[in-house]
Amino acid sequence: MADNVPLLGLAIPEACILTPKAPMSFLDTRRPVADLPVLPLFPTILSGVALLYAAVFGYFIWATAGQMSGYDFLDWIMLYSERPAGRLAYLWTPHSEHRIAAERLLLGIDIEWFGGTGLPFVVVRTALVLILSLGLAWQIYHSIASQLVKATALSLLVFALLPAHLVVMCTMPVMGGFVHTGSFAVFALLLWDNDSTPKRAAALAAAAIAGLGLAGGLFTWPALAFVAWRSGARVAWLAVIGVAGLLMWTIYLKGLPSHPGMLALDLQRVVAMADFVIRFLGLPWSHAAALVWPGRAIGTLVLATGCYLLLTDAFSGQRKPGFERVGLGMILFAFMLAAAAALARLNIAPDREMPVRYGMIVALAHAGILLAALPWLGRLIEGRHAAAVKIAILVAATALLAQQVMVGRAAVVQAGLYSDAWQRFSAGAWTPDMTHFVYPDRARAEKVLAYMRSQRIYGQ
Q1: What is the CA radius of gyration of the chain?
Q2: What is the pLDDT of residues 1-13, one digit of tens each?
Q3: Total domain count for the chain?
C-alpha cells in the first residue's frame, strides 16, 4: 500500500498527489504510447518494397534487351544506308513531324562502333532514366522536409519513375525518343539556377537538346520560362529564354509539314481531344481495353491535381522552394505535351487503348506532382490520420509491385512478338501480322533486310 502523506492535517495517499514531472526526453523509452511514432517500421517497409520494385524494373530491362524492332526502325536503317549528303543532313532529316537527331546519332554509333547490336540504345536510355531519377532524388533529399517525409518521398519517386511499361522505351530503339526528350526537359529544369551563369547556360543547352528526340521537346522552353519566372529570375534572363526558345522553334519547324488536325477544331473534336488528354494521363491503365474507364478516372485525378498545383502557385505571390518549382515545371511540360499529342492525332477513338509510348511523359507528371505536393505529403503522414495514410500507402505500394511484375511479363511477351515476327520474316516468311511487327511494305522491308545482311548487323 502507498504511504499516507499528511496534508493540512489530513492523511492522503501519496499516489493521489499531483506533482510536476520533469520534461520528457525525445529518446525516453518510457514515453506514453500516444507519443510514440505511428507505425515506426513504415519507412523501412516502404523502402524495401521500392527496392523490389526497382529490381523488377532492372530485371525486365535485361529480359527485353537485344530484341529487334520493326516498322520505324527499318526506316531509320534505310535512311542510314542512303545517308543524304553530309552527316548533319542525315541527323537533321525529319521523321514524320519529329527531328530525331539523337536517335539517328545512336543508330550510327551502334552500327559503326558496335556492329549493330542495339546495346547503345539500351545503355544510353537506361542511364538517362537513372540520372533523371537521381537528379530528382537529390532535390527531395536537400528539401526542408523531415526525414520521414524525405524517406517516403524517395520511395514514392521510385514508383513514379521506374514503372515496368517504361522498360520497352529503354530497350526498343523506336520508343527511346520519349526517354531522351523527357530526360533532357527535366535536366533543363534541374539545372536552372539564378546564382550561376554556367548552370543557366547548361539549362538552355539541355532545353535545346530535348527537342532532338521528339518535337514535344520544344515545350521545354515554356516550362523552363515558368520555372525561371517563379524562381525570381531577372527580366533579362526571361528574355534570353524567350528569344532562345523562339529561335529553336523557328529552326526546328522550318520545312516540317503542317498538321491538318490543327485546322479542324469543331466542338466534337475538342471534346475528343479532352478525352484523349485524360486517357493520356491515365496511362498505363488506359492502355488496356478493359481498364480504359479506370484509366480515365486516374487521368482526371492527375489533371485536376496538376492544374490545382499550377494555379495555386501562379497566384500565390510567394517564391516556392526549388524542388516545388521543378515539380511544377514537370507538370506543365507533361500537360502541354499531352495537349499537343491530342491536337496532332486525327484518329482519336474513345475506346481505343492509349499508346504506351506516352508513358514516359506521364511518369514525369506523377513525379512532378510528388515534388510539388511534398508539403502536403508531410501534413498527411505526420498529421492526425497518419496511421491510416501510411497503411494506404503500403497497400498501394504492394499493389504497384504486383502490377510491376504483371506489366513486365507483358512487356517480355510483346517484345517476343516483334522478335518472333522478325525471325520468321528473315527466314523468308510473310504473314499478315508482319505488317504490324515488321513493316507494312514487304518489298521495302526486304530491301532493308538485304542491307542488314550486307553489313552483318542486328543478327543478320
Answers
A1: 27
A2: 444 544 444 454 5
A3: 1
Question: Alpha-carbon distance 158 to 362, whole Å?
Answer: 14
Cell numbers standing for residue 155: 520511395
User: In this model, does residue 30 exceed pLDDT 50?
Assistant: no
Q: Which structural domain, as residue segments, surrounds residue 301?
A: 263-372
Residue 236 within a domain: no
208 in a domain, yes or no? no
Alpha-carbon gap, residue 23 to 432, rounded angstroms: 79
Task: Give the other-Cβ count within 10 Å of 12's Cβ.
Answer: 13
Which phi and psi angles does 98 have, rounded to 5°? -115, 150
> What does the buried/exposed string (b/e) look like for 327-351 if buried means 16 or more CB atoms within 10 Å of the residue's CB?
bbbbbbbbbbbbbbbbbbbeebeee
Residue position matching grid coordinates 514487304: 442
The phi and psi torsions of 6 (rounded to 5 degrees) equal: -70, 125
pLDDT one-digit tens code per residue, 120-133? 999 999 999 999 99
d(CA 460, CA 450): 9
Residue located via cell numbers 518549382 = 325
Instruction: Please count the helices (runs of H) and the strands (runs of E) in the chain.
Output: 19, 2
Q: Name 361's Cβ contacts closer than 8 Å, sequence gap at least 6.
A: 178, 182, 216, 280, 334, 337, 338
Element containing residue 208 per DSSP (H, E): helix 197-210
In this predicted structure, the answer to whether residue 346 has a pLDDT above a threshold of 80 is no
How confident is the prediction for the chain on average, in pLDDT? 87
Residue 69 located in a structural domain: no
Residue 284 belongs to a domain? yes
Distance CA 308, CA 289 (A): 29
Amino acid letter, residue 23? P
CB within 8 Å of 453: residues ≥ 6 apart: 460
Kindly list the distances between the CA atom of residue 448 and the CA atoms of 62, 414, 427, 443, in Å, as whole numbers in the listed order: 27, 23, 14, 9
